[in-house]
């Protein structure tokens, strides 16, 4: 999910809610193409560090976390982020 103007706590709460209901990865990106995006990615059954590593390796993202949840930032366009997510997910 991509949305501009959402604070980190709200984004984290959204990801936590999605993780409880769905398998796989749940991700929330807040920001825009000009300023970049902050992200939170969560999963109850997959290692989120693999997604963070792909964003880091391909787009220079910063951040990290634990297997169940990572957070960080990336200075890239939404279309570039979506392309990396398609490759990883």
From TrEMBL:
Single GO MF descriptor: aminoacyl-tRNA ligase activity
Record domain DHHA1: where: 3-88
Keywords annotated in UniProt:
Aminoacyl-tRNA synthetase, Ligase
**Does the record's keyword annotation contain Metal-binding?**
no
Upper classification of the source organism reads: Bacteria, Bacillati, Bacillota, Clostridia, Lachnospirales
* UniProt superkingdom: Bacteria
- Name of the molecule in the record: Alanyl-tRNA synthetase
Do you know which InterPro entries this protein is assigned to? DHHA1_dom
Q: Please verify whether the record's keywords include Aminoacyl-tRNA synthetase.
A: yes
- Provide the species name: Agathobacter rectalis CAG:36
